Amino acid sequence: MGATRLPAAEFDAEEQIDALQEPGNTHGPLGMVQLLTPDGEVREDRAFSSFAPDESQLRNLYRDMYLLRRFDQESTALQRQGELALWVPMTGQEAAQIGSGRAMQTQDYAFPTYREHGVAVTRGVRPAELLKLFRGITNGGWDPRENGFHLYTLVLAAQALHAVGYAMGMQRDQAADPSLPKAAAVAYFGDGASSEGDVHEAMVFAASFNAPVVFFCQNNHWAISVPSEVQSRVPLANRAQGYGFPGIRVDGNDVLAVQAVTSWALERARSGAGPVLIEAFTYRMSAHTTADDPTKYRASAEEEQWLPRDPLVRVEKRLRSSGTDDLFFAELEQEAKVLATELRAEVLAMQAPGFEQRFATTYAEAHPLIREELEAWQDYEAGFADQGKAE
């Protein structure tokens, strides 16, 4: 999945905020920033008029989303067949993840939940590496230092605090060494996690210290079985006003709008203007996890209403209307099949490390207490071998 980023835009962060709030500047439905409609038509938005990819960039974004969906489908199948302990689907949220991930620069750092598979691949994490955690053979699967993408956070909303702390560290490092590249952190969370105290505390600290952090909320409408309208009576983006920094709602199924808004928010944070809250208005088209049954709490009619807003469908419509031929789509389908085949083979070949590895990875360096515990365990294991010989 190759990198695709919009060209840098020249703009003033505060002027852009004024443009967003300007009465005459109408955004898409529900006050959202929208650059590509569900019908594949390009919309004008004065606040983001400088973010306009060419057709080549749009094809790359579509390729990212298409391969990501195939990865998600294969991972779901692997779990159903007993090869993964659990899987967290993200079908329907491809645009929110690819768009925001492609907006990040190398020096930025992302703090995910457990569903940001699309962001992971934009940061250079191999899809199979993500599955090591869900196969139960590691606590992570990749080295965050190599790609600026933190390990998945299973404790709901904890990553918001981690992101703000990391952003404050970036802030102080740059103050001590101005030659360092300007960077920002991104905290990913869902609408359900936005109701957690950790998110509130993170936003308080971010505002107090003007931390270079972007809060990226994927409002997929369901916190497992709790609908978003039960959690908040106002758009989640409005909450930012209470902390004293901008909040913006974007069509989370529009990959162009997501990339544009995230690029703007990150540039604002890097420049020292402080945090931003982005609410990506999207929809979880599948189960919360493979242990969940959405038919118990969600009507099929609701799911059908969202089908025409599919993030892949609108980009495909745009590409076909602008002259992309059938060969592109045929080759992409074949590439997706190869990805799925190779992914399956790699997962089936994964083996859990020996129990000794648990002792080796508890501390970064050798620790006398851990060494003592390892020796005690080895003696315990050896006792079984001696017992077998006696019998």
Descriptive overview:
Helices cover 48% and strands 8% of the residues. The chain has helices at 13-21, 55-80, 94-103, 117-122, 127-135, 144-147, 158-176, 197-209, 228-231, 240-243, 255-270, 300-306, 311-321, 326-348, 356-360, 368-390; strands at 109-111, 185-190, 213-219, 222-223, 226-227, 247-251, 276-281. Helix 2 runs antiparallel to helix 13 (311-321). Residues 2-26 have low confidence and may be disordered.
Mean pLDDT over all positions: 91
Integer-rounded radius of gyration: 23 Å
User: Regarding CATH, which class of the largest domain?
Assistant: Alpha Beta
> Which structural class fits the helix and strand makeup?
alpha/beta
Under the CATH scheme, which architecture of the largest domain would be assigned? 3-Layer(aba) Sandwich
Number of helices: 16
Name the features.
about 400 residues; alpha/beta; Rossmann fold; five-stranded parallel sheet
